[in-house]
């Protein structure tokens, strides 16, 4: 993706400065809001990417949309406009969120289930995450009826598949490769 390396550098610098000023959490909330807003608005994405619209006008629009953000976040707008990189604001925001979570030792887990998770299931899955990784994680629930039952847990590059569909596939493979228990008639 274009601009990712530059976005990582900006995000790292922003996080370092936010940590120095002790506003990293507030900036994280701002970056989350920015990321969600840009994702939800095709007009804003088009405006930020447009070479026709003057950078000062983009900056003014961002300050109007995000008027309640931390001063450091407003400074990020100014810096990206000044360096003619405002088009990567969304990537910078996402990279900041990743770096922030990494800095406070938070990992994200995606749990795929057939039905939405209940609080009891979340507790059990959190225990499984802790067993597998040694740390807790924030859980995002994804619904997929094709797994038939059970769950698929993904934390970083680790995947734990306890789905019914996976177990059925294992059985199917076992029957295809031959089974010593089937009598030869």
What does the model show?
There is one protein chain. The chain has 185 residues and is α+β, with helices and mostly antiparallel strands. It folds into two domains: 4-103, Orthogonal Bundle (Peroxidase, domain 1); 107-176, no CATH class. Helices cover 58% and strands 14% of the residues. The protein is built from eight helices and four strands; from the N terminus they run ααααααβαβββα. Strands 2-1-3-4 form a four-stranded mixed β-sheet. Helix 2 (24-40) crosses helix 6 and helix 4 packs antiparallel against helix 5 (71-82). The longest helix is centred in the first third of the chain and has 17 residues, at 4-20. 22% of the residues are buried. The model has no long low-confidence stretch (mean pLDDT 87). It is found in: Cell membrane; Membrane.
Attribute tags:
four-stranded mixed beta sheet, single chain, 2 domains, 4 strands, 185 residues, alpha+beta, Peroxidase, domain 1
Please list the strands of the largest sheet in the order they lie side by side. Answer: 2-1-3-4
Specify the CATH class of the largest domain. Mainly Alpha
Number of structural units classed as domains: 2
Distance from first to last alpha carbon:
59 Å
List unreliable stretches of 5+ residues: none
Q: Would you count the extended β strands for me?
A: 4
What is the architecture of the largest domain at the second tier of CATH? Orthogonal Bundle
Backbone structural class: alpha+beta
Can you count the helices? 8
Which shape, going by the Cα principal axes?
Answer: elongated
**Rg to the nearest angstrom?**
23 Å
Let me know the average pLDDT.
Answer: 87
